[in-house]
Specification:
alpha+beta; 11 helices; seven-stranded mixed sheet; about 425 residues
Length: about 425
């Protein structure tokens, strides 16, 4: 598809950050922009899951929240559990004192991107695909314009460029902006350094409170962290569009894998089953000694294996003729713990685009507690010492159970996750 020769704003990347930047530009009266993506279609990935309260507010501010509210699961809270019982729960209900959206929304990223792109299309705007950027340089005639070259030989001249093209951002690379973890590369002792995430169905419906929609469940056991999010069957069409259709309930599972266990193998059905049986909550295991109604993985609908780390760009603004901005993963990447990465990307896109739109008009006339929780999650049930017949993990669980009885503690955790304090 032919691209225009000139545009005021060029958005590179049509993930959550780029799509929301486009919606925000349109909402604030800027319609001279082009959004491009290197992919033929949106990525069939559902890695990110949670849209927190502050992000729902930001989407509502540009009239883009309705599609999420009608389709997503409204999360009631986040639970921390042992394999057999609840240890702690952070309920979102206390957020009603601070927000019209006192909940988190649970929705796979593939559906998030679909909802955003459908909203964009309803405004008469389409993502231009596939167009891969291969070069940017200052325009020879106008020092405030940049020529952006594409793999197919086309060139767009732009006054503003929003780099929303992910962790391997070509815009960031060509602009010469550094990207590194400020705390260095030493991640060997982090249980979340590697993760396996999968959407699965079971041979029969699991039973128990952890299998009901409305909560993200995190199980801590044997020095590891295991995640379970029941999705029901409301996202089946989107999650199975490239595979075998199913009418069964789909469950998101995820497990941290220590580096001492070596590189991650392919996430086969057998491998996922082994992770569930080793670290998962009893209600979804196939072990009859743990689960009176054992279940087995029937289908791995989607899976991903990856190493997690944090990194931040040296700067998120530069000039190479045009003003160049970085948003989302192009600007910063985060551990998935706490579910903040996509939320920050969406809010990046919304707030930056508003500022750009206002500048155009004027010219024309983390979670602070995540490391602590990770450290707690790594504790094992080995005896603390010969003179103390209980483990640090037992003490951790006891403390969390006691703290979880206090409403103000639950409220504090929910507030930290929501992002409302960083509006």
């Amino acid at each position: 598809m032919s691209l225009p020769e000139n545009t005021t704003v060029l958005i590179v990347g049509a993930g959550p950050a780029g799509l929301t930047a486009a919606l925000s530009l349109a909402h604030h009266g800027c319609h001279d922009f082009v959004i491009v993506d290197a992919m033929v279609k949106g990525q069939n990935t559902s890695r990110a899951m949670i849209i927190h309260s502050a992000t729902v507010e930001a989407l509502a501010s540009i009239d883009a929240a309705d599609g999420f509210l009608s389709q997503a699961i409204k999360g009631k809270g986040i639970r921390i559990t042992s394999r057999s019982s609840q240890i702690f729960e952070a309920k979102f209900d206390p957020l009603k004192k601070h927000s019209a959206h006192p909940y988190a929304l649970y929705m796979p990223q593939i559906v998030t991107e679909l909802v955003l792109e459908q909203k964009l299309q309803s405004l008469g705007i389409r993502v231009q695909r596939p167009h891969r950027v291969v070069g940017i340089k200052k325009n020879e005639k106008n020092p405030r314009i940049t020529d952006v070259s594409f793999e197919d030989g086309q060139v767009i001249r732009a006054r503003y460029i929003i780099g929303a093209d992910g962790a391997r951002s070509i815009i960031r690379t060509i602009a010469g902006i550094g990207f590194s973890d400020p705390e260095g590369p030493n991640l060997a002792n982090n249980v979340m350094t590697q993760m396996v995430v999968a959407d699965v169905t079971f041979d029969r419906e699991p039973v128990g409170p952890l299998t009901l929609e409305g909560h993200l469940n995190g199980t801590v056991f044997s020095g590891n962290f295991f995640m379970l999010v029941p999705l029901g069957n409301r996202f089946n069409a989107e999650l199975t569009q490239d595979g075998k259709p199913t009418t069964k309930s789909i469950f998101r599972v995820g497990c941290g894998i220590s580096l001492k266990n070596g590189d991650l193998p392919h996430a086969s059905k057998e491998y996922i089953q082994d992770l569930i049986d080793t670290y998962g909550p009893a209600c979804i295991t196939s072990d009859p000694s743990l689960n009176p109604t054992p279940v087995k993985v029937d289908q791995v609908v989607w899976s991903s294996r990856f190493r997690t780390h944090s990194a931040i760009a040296d700067r998120t603004f530069t000039r190479l003729g045009a003003a160049i901005f970085l948003v989302g993963d192009a600007a910063h990447i985060h551990s998935p713990f706490g579910g903040q990465g996509m939320n920050l990307a969406i809010r990046d896109g919304i707030f930056l685009a508003e500022a750009v739109a206002k500048h155009i008009q004027t010219s024309a006339g983390i979670p602070i507690y995540s490391k602590t929780l990770l450290k707690l999650g790594r504790l094992t049930y080995d005896s603390y010492a010969w003179w103390m017949p209980c483990s640090r993990a037992f003490i951790r669980d006891l403390i969390l159970r006691m703290l979880g009885r206090f409403d103000f503690v639950q409220s504090k955790v929910a507030w930290g996750l929501s992002g409302l304090g960083r509006r």
